[in-house]
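ugh ok fine here u go
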Amino acid sequence: GFTMIIDLAIDSDGAAYVLEHDIDGLLGPSTLGRVTRVRADGSRAVIASAGLTWPGGITIGADRALYVTTNSSRAAIGGVVRIPIP
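structure:
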């Protein structure tokens, strides 16, 4: 059910945060990525997609928020988006 997984982050509860580089593949019309939480029981929830243009990496900060790089496949326009974990 995932397209173009590019990175993962695992929290202290064992949930995995799966980062997809492009939700409809490189040839699709979208440039949006997505973060999906997968719990140990296999349940899934989309955490974020808005503002995630071609993301490249994900980590969990000391403040327990997700940090995702954006525009990772384009030079000189990258950034970082902070996403609170619900």
